[in-house]
Amino acid sequence: MIEHELLFLGLLKDGPKHGYEIKRLIEEELFPFVGLKIKSIYYPLKKMERLGLVNKDVGREGKWPEKYIYSITPKGEKIFEHLITENFLTIERPYFNIDLSLYFLPFVEKKIARRRLKARIIFLKRIMRDLEALEKNIKPNTQHLRIILSHDIALVNAEINSLSSLIETLI
Amino acid sequence: MIEHELLFLGLLKDGPKHGYEIKRLIEEELFPFVGLKIKSIYYPLKKMERLGLVNKDVGREGKWPEKYIYSITPKGEKIFEHLITENFLTIERPYFNIDLSLYFLPFVEKKIARRRLKARIIFLKRIMRDLEALEKNIKPNTQHLRIILSHDIALVNAEINSLSSLIETLI
DNA sequence: ATCTTACTAGTAAAATTTTACTATTTGCCT
DNA sequence: AGGCAAATAGTAAAATTTTACTAGTAAGAT
Question: Which of A78, B28, B72, B162 is 20 to 30 A away from residue B49, measured at CA?
Fold first, then answer.
């Protein structure tokens, strides 16, 4: 929930937005860079409204159905500062789905394990190529996105290396 | 929930266990290797019981209060095989809390950003040292844990490198 | 002219997760 | 002997998240 607040406040800091726009931004633009999934935005937005962090105003553009424009309040700005600082200094052990399988590796036949690991590595290499392609197309003034991407690439690389050396021990 | 099932089934595959033991295992032994947090185990266990994946038997050891021993059923074994295979072949973009802050970096003063990033790197280096110490003490027959750990170390390293090069661009 | 897809706003209900408790027994400390 | 921590089992209620819908307009496709 804390991350959700940071997310919404950050998006609204960039300018007021209506719900659908927020949803689209999260799904399409943020998701590739920030693996934070949110299925429904209205509950958290309502909660933040209750807390006085965002305002909801009725706005009507063109002849579209009503739009409710959400915007950040001064209190929201304050909380944003607080949350982003906290987030900079918080280190969570990230969750990698593969770790669970590795933890249970002793319960998998070696032959099968090797096969699965090899298949995974193929997928990972494909992802790596996609990320590298993305990196080339990134806009020049978005330094921070480039950092996130190159971090991602390093991570995928690290997983490929780890799994490759694991395969060699499975004989 | 799917990960939870895999987790419980894997733990019970190793042998029947009672609730408290499962909880302790997750909190103390798995957590460092698998960043999966579970606050309450009974709801998922009950659900899995309903699905016929685990059995709950009353057992009494010594004079302790009643113990309910959970064990995996044949159906549970089957599902375990299925889930672990699926999990091997699933790649999720991991969530790194720092990515959100990086995404919003343009909203932070450069000077402040540099300070926060430097502080984070100090933390990360501390974690790196801890992980390396852990790696030395790991039991010799647990190859897979060693892999998870060295993967972790590579990840922390990757973050340190990314953030360091980011700091240099923030002038 | 009509059909489909995208844009917009949600809500109700179901499922899950988190929080905050209650209760009993044993073993250890003072 | 008395008290506290750890071992053991949860549950009830609150909070949150997910799922599955409803509804209407505009723009583009056939």
Answer: B28
